[in-house]
Amino acid sequence: MSADFDFMSATALARLVATKAVSPVELTRRALDRAAATQSSLNAFFLLMEDEAMSAAREAETAVVRGAELGPLHGLPFSAKDLMAVKGQRYASGSRAMADNVAEVDAPAVERAKAAGAILIGKTTTSEFGCKPVGDSPLTGITRHPWDLSKTPGGSSAGAAASVAAGITPFALGTDGGGSIRIPCSVTGLAGLKGQFGRVAVWPTSATPTLAHVGPLARSIEDAALLFSAIAGYDPRDPFSVAGPVPDVLGALGRGVEGMRIAWSPTLGYARPDPEVVAIAEAAAKRLADAGAIVEEVERVFDADPEDMWMAEFYAGVGTRLRSVVETKRELLDPAVAVVLEAALAQEMRDYYDKVFRRYALRDQMRRFFERYDLLLSPTLPKTSVPTGVDVPEGLEDRTLVSWVFYTYPFNLTGQPAASVRAGLSSDGMPVGLQIVGRALREADVVAAAAAVERGWPGEEDLHLRRLSPSLR
User: Fold this and answer.
1) What is the pLDDT of residue 460?
2) Is the pLDDT of residue 461 over 80?
């Protein structure tokens, strides 16, 4: 199988598989070989599942030849982040402290993707317990950006983004507790979708159960919507799982944005983005106005940065899960992560619950905000790219391990659906993301706007291939 298929969309590949023009065995073999060949430079995978993947591919091919009814993802290779359980496989969450842990079950999203015919080729790298928005951990080392190996692909779904941007798989499953799908999608020029909190079931219970989301990363919002449609829906194992019909995100792709009321906010009221980032994201917002939306600039969305609410919730959860490690085997942890976990564990209970109730007030504030608007747009990140080995970018040294990203974590606190799509390219050739946030339960609106933004980039289907680092070709 030639390199022509590496950057083909999942939607196109699914059609080719269904019509017997492409073999699931060849697709899977190609994905495994590309993953192995790029591992020493890209380092996108925590582990590869060659035997299991090839066995599933042969079964998928037999079903095609037999004329069986095929699922929407039949024969398509994908990966799952190492914050997700895959039955019988190591489940380390990017941590040396969990290096020998083995999952007893498949996470619901993995289970559903497989049931839809997709073929799992391996687990991708993550920062330790998803605690950093960059792509390194003491367990797996540094994961690199496919366009520029000196840069991070973002995190914590680092390997997921790197593998999709490098053409290894057409899409991947990631997690998002504070932006961990949207951040790497912005950095690598991908489309990522965080559905409504509970729309995609999370189980076994996350270390951050009130913030955690699972969702797709892909090279287009169409492919992200395809995977999302397969994995979303109620699951009784997740107590937060949303009951009711899943929005028709595939149908929303061609719906357009005419008449939508959209707020554009360069800073949400507190962020410090690079001017070039704002200019590129604002130009993408204006494309939605050109498509018929009513776009209004809103400088202050939040009264204050909700960073402390998010930090209290996220790191307290991870810290409690790792308490014995923090107290007795601190040397196993990423030093930067250990510091924030210690601070979270030192919280006084009344102070913690003060932040919990402020979070409920924040959710209500957003409910009222979205009585006036259908969508909120912002940059996804304040920077276009970050060098590897850097936890906090230059110029933002006063910010914390996560708070420098500014834009994404508020919408884990509120639980609203949100996406990141490529807004454009910066002067150094690196991607800039546009974040699109919707009203509660309205993923279809988010996808419709994301598709409208992407339609403003004709002829860009081969962007990732053209931008790929020569050493990865």
Assistant:
1) 75
2) no
* Residue 287, H or E segment: helix 275-290
Residue 456: the pLDDT is 81
Q: Please choose, from the candidates 94, 227, 90, the residue with its C-alpha nearest in 3D space to the C-alpha of residue 156.
A: 94
CB-neighbour burial class of residue 249 (10 A; exposed 0-12, middle 13-18, buried 19+): buried
Strand pairing report for 77-81 and 261-264: unpaired
Q: What is the structure's pLDDT at 276?
A: 98
* Whether residue 180 lies in the annotated active site: yes
pLDDT of residue 4: 79
Quick check: 191 and 221 in contact, CB under 8 A?
yes
C-alpha–C-alpha distance, residues 336 and 323, integer Å = 16
The pLDDT tens digits for 382-400 are: 999 999 999 999 999 999 9
Of 79, 95, 127, 180, which residue is the catalytic one? 180
Residue among 174, 183, 177, 118 at smallest CA distance from 155: 183
* Identified catalytic residue from 81, 194, 355, 383: 81
Residue 320: other Cβ atoms inside 10 A: 13
Spatial distance between the Cα atoms of 304 and 271, rounded to a whole number of angstroms: 10
Distance separating alpha carbons of residues 193 and 411, to the nearest angstrom: 12
Longest CA–CA span in the chain (Å) reads 63
- Among residues of the chain, what percentage have pLDDT more than 90? 97
The 3-state DSSP class for residue 334 equals coil
Confidence of residue 3 (pLDDT cuts 50, 70, 90): confident
How much is the pTM? Answer: 0.97
Per-residue 3-state assignment (H helix, E strand, C coil) for 169-207: CCEEEEEECCCCCHHHHHHHCCEEEECCCCCECCCCCCC
156 carries an active-site annotation: yes
Residue 124 backbone dihedrals phi, psi, to 5 degrees:
-100, 160
Structure tokens at 365: 């504030």
Lowest mean pLDDT, pick from 23-27, 339-343, 416-420, 454-458: 454-458
Closest of 187, 130, 138 to residue 162, by C-alpha: 187
81 is catalytic: yes
Query: Pick the catalytic residue: 156, 157, 206, 265?
Result: 156
